[in-house]
């Protein structure tokens, strides 16, 4: 994210993006980690995280963004999220049931409560965030490929 | 009692885990995706056989996901009909998976194929096994999105066009299904299928149920490809890679379309005379229109696609009759059709593998070069056109007898007519493709590799011996359980809700 | 009642786009409109008169909440719709790559 990069949009857009992207990422993480207490959760937080990267891509062009988060890493996180989700669900068999909430529920309205729900939120957010970003990259690359021909 | 009930979620969880593992770990290693897929499919076949045995003892098993009891939580229901469909779907998937090992060699990025293939199996199994109507919708979408991407797998012109048509049509179908689920939920305030049935039984029939039924028939008709809604199916079957066409015809349209229709209309909403006549009308229409359109085709796979529509018509007509014999015939035909249509699509794929052709006029004399393909294709053709003692004969025979017994002579006549036309069109296939003179430049054609032959031969053996499922001693364990579930009608709700309490 | 009719109208607009428009992108837009109509209908069907949002908080009383289940279900339906639309768009891009047009009357090589 250096100012001298020629590709992408104008300086104003780049500056604003540089200032806001971090906040968006943080907000996404907040939404995920408080998913079991307030509205939101894994899906919404994941979308916000993906959008922060998409914003970066719109402002700076694909080279800078893909250096931050390469396509391979994005699809690795996507697979990781899915495996985590399924793994936690299968771990429920230790309590006797698929998807069983086998961790102590804790006290309501605390950050560390609700058993496996926050873990699910994290897994979903990995899956959704990386997946949405991967979809965006693939569509962009597809279009660039088509324009080259 | 609840000793082996833990196998129920595995039907969905294992294929999904396999798909994610392939996407995450196995993409770099060439041979691993095929191995994982084959291990999973063979495992699923054995688990379905085990489930058949389990159902013989317990009749109905309900699994509470996450230990929440079903009317509130999500339940998975295993009963006779479910087990029957699971066996059908997983058998087809198993043979297609063996076949794919050699067939998929020609594509780049094989791991994508196997990932989507496993998602397709997971979706189809999930639709069959779930007891919750919104879950049914979710699994249905998993299966149909995976199959859409598989149709476009070759990324040639035709593949993309067919995939786009299929994606739009099945998307619209899903919207109708979702709309009907919304109406059902706002009318009954529950999503569990047994509970919906329970609530509906306490209310008087009215126009909302009529509208829901119409939406459901449209939605699932689009998924199953019955005649007024069949527009996208022939293109999709023609353009998709052969294993995918085989899966679509043998497993996906059956579990997504037919299973869901019959489960909802017989067990949840409840069947009546008007619905029965509608089903029989659609069935007969699909039967006749499909076979008439098929006769004129020269593209092998397109011909098979239209025959698929026509045979679906038989199934819908048989089950729509509503008599025990008709339901037996319909279900047995569902199983048989899954076997021989999978085999026929695999045959077409093996011809395409060897010669690169799909046009019947350009083939000819292949029986010398490809004895296994020609032999198995002969078996499947005889099965589909209803020649004794192949399995297709028994099921068609039962459907026709059932129609006569119910006094529906017109429908019985149409079924016989469609069977004769089917025979005519497959005589054409055999004559042009396998017999006759060898075309120029076809001397170098070789028989397909071993695994393709293995898969086709095993399916042909099932075609020949399929009639054994009707034999006393076997019939009670497999088909009768499924027929009983459909026959019990809306008593399904009390059966399931009692099984929850155990 | 009027809001339900609005949803029906939106749904019909979507279906009209899917059936009548020739441009692939417009067909996809029609699909999105129809899907959102169904989602909107689901949310509205769950509304209770003067209901409040179904959030469980330490200081709030649990009275007069709207039905919370459809909101979760619609979230799932939106995610599914996202996948569907992404698939459709990527197929559309590939089609443009191969055929050089978005007009479905010119993309008709499959017949019969």
Automatic annotation (TrEMBL), chain A:
<comment type="similarity">
    <text>Belongs to the CPA3 antiporters (TC 2.A.63) subunit B family.</text>
</comment>
<keyword id="KW-0472">Membrane</keyword>
<feature type="transmembrane region" description="Helical">
    <location>
        <begin position="116"/>
        <end position="142"/>
    </location>
</feature>
<dbReference type="InterPro" id="IPR050622">
    <property type="entry name" value="CPA3_antiporter_subunitB"/>
</dbReference>
<keyword id="KW-0812">Transmembrane</keyword>
<keyword id="KW-1133">Transmembrane helix</keyword>
<dbReference type="GO" id="GO:0005886">
    <property type="term" value="C:plasma membrane"/>
</dbReference>
<dbReference type="InterPro" id="IPR007182">
    <property type="entry name" value="MnhB"/>
</dbReference>
<feature type="domain" description="Na+/H+ antiporter MnhB subunit-related protein">
    <location>
        <begin position="12"/>
        <end position="132"/>
    </location>
</feature>
<protein>
    <recommendedName>
        <fullName>Na+/H+ antiporter MnhB subunit-related protein domain-containing protein</fullName>
    </recommendedName>
</protein>
<feature type="transmembrane region" description="Helical">
    <location>
        <begin position="43"/>
        <end position="61"/>
    </location>
</feature>
<dbReference type="Pfam" id="PF04039">
    <property type="entry name" value="MnhB"/>
</dbReference>
<keyword id="KW-1003">Cell membrane</keyword>
<feature type="transmembrane region" description="Helical">
    <location>
        <begin position="12"/>
        <end position="31"/>
    </location>
</feature>
<feature type="transmembrane region" description="Helical">
    <location>
        <begin position="82"/>
        <end position="104"/>
    </location>
</feature>
TrEMBL record, chain B:
<dbReference type="GO" id="GO:0005886">
    <property type="term" value="C:plasma membrane"/>
</dbReference>
<keyword id="KW-1133">Transmembrane helix</keyword>
<keyword id="KW-0830">Ubiquinone</keyword>
<feature type="domain" description="NADH:quinone oxidoreductase/Mrp antiporter transmembrane">
    <location>
        <begin position="132"/>
        <end position="422"/>
    </location>
</feature>
<comment type="similarity">
    <text>Belongs to the CPA3 antiporters (TC 2.A.63) subunit D family.</text>
</comment>
<feature type="transmembrane region" description="Helical">
    <location>
        <begin position="278"/>
        <end position="300"/>
    </location>
</feature>
<keyword id="KW-0472">Membrane</keyword>
<dbReference type="Pfam" id="PF00361">
    <property type="entry name" value="Proton_antipo_M"/>
</dbReference>
<protein>
    <submittedName>
        <fullName>NADH/ubiquinone/plastoquinone (Complex I)</fullName>
    </submittedName>
</protein>
<keyword id="KW-0812">Transmembrane</keyword>
<feature type="transmembrane region" description="Helical">
    <location>
        <begin position="312"/>
        <end position="335"/>
    </location>
</feature>
<dbReference type="InterPro" id="IPR001750">
    <property type="entry name" value="ND/Mrp_TM"/>
</dbReference>
<feature type="transmembrane region" description="Helical">
    <location>
        <begin position="411"/>
        <end position="430"/>
    </location>
</feature>
<keyword id="KW-1003">Cell membrane</keyword>
<feature type="transmembrane region" description="Helical">
    <location>
        <begin position="245"/>
        <end position="266"/>
    </location>
</feature>
Automatic annotation (TrEMBL), chain C:
<dbReference type="Pfam" id="PF00420">
    <property type="entry name" value="Oxidored_q2"/>
</dbReference>
<comment type="similarity">
    <text>Belongs to the CPA3 antiporters (TC 2.A.63) subunit C family.</text>
</comment>
<keyword id="KW-0812">Transmembrane</keyword>
<keyword id="KW-1133">Transmembrane helix</keyword>
<protein>
    <submittedName>
        <fullName>Cation:proton antiporter</fullName>
    </submittedName>
</protein>
<dbReference type="GO" id="GO:0005886">
    <property type="term" value="C:plasma membrane"/>
</dbReference>
<dbReference type="InterPro" id="IPR050601">
    <property type="entry name" value="CPA3_antiporter_subunitC"/>
</dbReference>
<dbReference type="InterPro" id="IPR039428">
    <property type="entry name" value="NUOK/Mnh_C1-like"/>
</dbReference>
<feature type="transmembrane region" description="Helical">
    <location>
        <begin position="27"/>
        <end position="47"/>
    </location>
</feature>
<keyword id="KW-0472">Membrane</keyword>
<feature type="transmembrane region" description="Helical">
    <location>
        <begin position="68"/>
        <end position="93"/>
    </location>
</feature>
<keyword id="KW-1003">Cell membrane</keyword>
């Amino acid at each position: 994210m250096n100012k001298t990069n020629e590709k992408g949009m104008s300086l104003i857009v780049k500056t604003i993006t540089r200032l806001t992207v971090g906040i968006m990422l943080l907000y996404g993480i907040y939404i995920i980690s408080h998913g079991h207490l307030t509205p939101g959760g894994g899906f919404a937080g994941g979308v916000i995280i993906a959008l922060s990267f998409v914003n970066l891509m719109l402002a700076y062009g694909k080279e800078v963004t893909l250096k931050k988060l390469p396509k391979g890493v994005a699809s690795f996180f996507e697979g990781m999220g899915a495996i985590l989700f399924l793994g936690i669900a299968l771990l429920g068999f230790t309590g006797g049931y698929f998807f069983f909430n086998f961790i102590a529920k804790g006290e309501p309205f605390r950050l560390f409560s609700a058993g496996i729900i926050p873990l699910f939120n994290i897994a979903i957010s990995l899956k959704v965030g990386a997946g949405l970003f991967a979809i965006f990259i693939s569509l962009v690359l597809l279009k660039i490929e088509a324009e080259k021909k | 009692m609840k000793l082996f009930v833990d196998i129920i979620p595995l039907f969905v969880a294992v294929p999904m885990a396999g798909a994610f593992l392939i996407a995450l770990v196995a993409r770099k290693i060439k041979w691993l995706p095929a191995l994982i897929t084959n291990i999973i499919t063979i495992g699923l076949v054995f688990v379905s056989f085990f489930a058949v045995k389990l159902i013989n003892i317990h009749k109905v098993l309900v699994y509470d996901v996450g230990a929440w009891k079903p009317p509130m939580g999500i339940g998975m229901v295993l009963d006779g009909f479910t087990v029957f469909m699971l066996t059908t779907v997983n058998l087809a998937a198993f043979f297609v998976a063996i076949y794919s090992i050699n067939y998929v060699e020609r594509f780049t990025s094989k791991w994508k194929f196997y990932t989507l293939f496993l998602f397709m199996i997971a979706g189809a199994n999930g639709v069959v096994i779930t007891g919750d109507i919104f879950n049914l919708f979710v699994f249905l979408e998993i299966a149909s999105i995976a199959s859409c991407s598989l149709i476009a797998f070759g990324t040639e012109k035709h593949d993309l066009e067919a995939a786009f048509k299929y994606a739009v049509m099945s998307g619209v179908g899903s919207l109708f299904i979702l709309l009907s689920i919304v109406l059902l939920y706002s009318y009954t305030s529950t999503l569990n299928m047994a509970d919906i049935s329970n609530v509906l039984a306490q209310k008087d029939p009215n126009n909302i149920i009529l509208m829901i039924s119409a939406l459901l028939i449209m939605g699932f008709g689009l998924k199953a490809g019955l005649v007024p809604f069949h527009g996208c199916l022939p293109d999709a079957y023609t353009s998709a890679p052969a294993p995918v066409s085989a899966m679509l015809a043998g497993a996906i349209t059956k579990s997504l379309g037919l299973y869901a229709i019959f489960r909802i209309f017989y067990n949840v909403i409840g069947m009546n005379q008007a619905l029965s006549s509608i089903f029989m009308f659609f069935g007969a229409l699909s039967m006749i229109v499909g076979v008439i359109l098929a006769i004129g085709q020269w593209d092998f796979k397109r011909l098979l696609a239209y025959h698929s529509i026509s045979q679906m018509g038989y199934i819908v007509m048989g089950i729509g009759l509503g008599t025990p014999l008709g339901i037996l015939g319909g279900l047995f035909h569902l199983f048989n059709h899954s076997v021989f249509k999978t085999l026929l699509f695999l045959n077409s794929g093996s011809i395409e593998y060897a010669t690169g052709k799909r046009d019947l006029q350009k083939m000819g004399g292949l029986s010398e070069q490809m004895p296994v393909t020609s032999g198995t294709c002969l078996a499947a053709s005889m099965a589909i056109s209803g020649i004794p003692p192949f399995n297709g004969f028994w099921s068609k025979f039962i459907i026709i007898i059932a129609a006569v017994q119910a006094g529906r002579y017109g429908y019985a006549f149409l079924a016989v007519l469609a069977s004769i036309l089917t025979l005519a069109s497959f005589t054409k296939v055999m004559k042009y493709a396998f017999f006759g003179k060898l075309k120029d430049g076809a001397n170098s054609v070789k028989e397909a590799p071993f695994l393709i032959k293995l898969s086709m031969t095993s399916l042909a053996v099932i075609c020949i011996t399929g009639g054994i499922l009707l034999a006393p001693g076997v019939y009670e364990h497999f088909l009768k359980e499924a027929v009983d579930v459909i026959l019990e009608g809306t008593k399904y709700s009390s059966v399931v809700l009692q099984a929850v309490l155990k | 009642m009027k809001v339900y009719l609005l949803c029906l109208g939106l749904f019909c607009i979507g279906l009209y786009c899917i059936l009548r428009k020739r441009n692939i992108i417009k067909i996809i837009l029609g699909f999105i409109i129809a899907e959102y109509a169904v989602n909107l209908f689901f949310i509205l069907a769950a509304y209770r008169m003067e209901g409040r949002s179904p959030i469980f908080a330490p200081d709030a009383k649990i009275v007069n909440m709207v039905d919370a289940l459809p909101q979760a279900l619609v979230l799932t339906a939106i995610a599914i719709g996202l996948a569907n639309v992404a698939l459709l768009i990527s197929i559309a891009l590939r089609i443009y790559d191969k055929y050089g047009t978005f007009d479905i009357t010119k993309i008709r090589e499959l017949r019969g």
